[in-house]
């Protein structure tokens, strides 16, 4: 019995239309190429998602779920900023402020910009077999990109402008948060990867912009003369 080829998800169809923008004569071949590319990438994305869902990890399930929940509404990054402000002196307070500013800008960019434009559907956890012990509430927003991941990498990139020593641990924590969104079944891996890239770019831009505007004094990046 013949089977029809898999239908490209609606969100990928819409993105293909945008990528194929141009004169009508050129639009059809561009759209066909874009659809093939997005279909292949989507197939890989869903395969990795199913692989994570099907890999038993009982030691990780509950801790990763709790971390993912704590990162809701950027609570994790606000808590980290609070610790930095309380224990890091003047540089810690400046780093906390810059990091939270980056999170605010990133949230607007992701939620008002990318999610509205892409409108990718969330994964089907039941169909993929994600164990219920991993589940967190499924957000109602679009799946692409991961806002949790973007916020984490935005915070890390901006803070690194003021406290370079914090860059590695914060980026590691942001990466773990990103993985948690796949582990709990609420995001595809591609959502997380692109979210990390967007967040890092926004965080770097915000940190650099505040530095250039002298909102964050330049001595934060270099040792003052005795």
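^ structure tokens above, recovered residues below v
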């Amino acid at each position: 019995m013949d089977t029809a080829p898999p239908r490209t998800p609606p969100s990928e169809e819409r993105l293909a239309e945008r990528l194929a923008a141009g004169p009508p004569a050129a639009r059809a071949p561009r759209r066909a190429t874009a659809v093939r590319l997005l279909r292949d990438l989507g197939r890989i994305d869903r395969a990795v998602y199913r692989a994570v869902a099907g890999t038993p990890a009982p030691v990780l399930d509950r801790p990763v779920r709790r971390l993912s929940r704590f990162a809701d509404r950027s609570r994790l990054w606000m808590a980290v900023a609070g610790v930095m402000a309380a224990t890091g002196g003047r540089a810690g307070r400046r780093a906390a402020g810059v990091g939270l500013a980056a999170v605010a800008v990133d949230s607007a960019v992701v939620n008002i910009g990318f999610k509205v434009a892409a409108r990718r559907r969330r994964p089907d956890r039941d169909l993929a077999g994600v164990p219920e012990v991993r589940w967190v509430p499924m957000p109602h927003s679009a799946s692409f990109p991961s806002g949790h991941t973007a916020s984490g990498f935005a915070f890390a990139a901006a803070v690194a402008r003021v406290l370079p020593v914090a860059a590695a641990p914060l980026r590691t924590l942001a990466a773990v948060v990103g993985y948690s969104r796949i582990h709990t079944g609420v995001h595809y891996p591609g959502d997380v990867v692109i979210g990390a890239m967007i967040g890092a770019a926004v965080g770097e831009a915000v940190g650099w912009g505040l530095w250039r505007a002298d909102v964050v004094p330049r001595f934060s990046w270099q040792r003052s003369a005795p």
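The longest helix spans residues 24-53.
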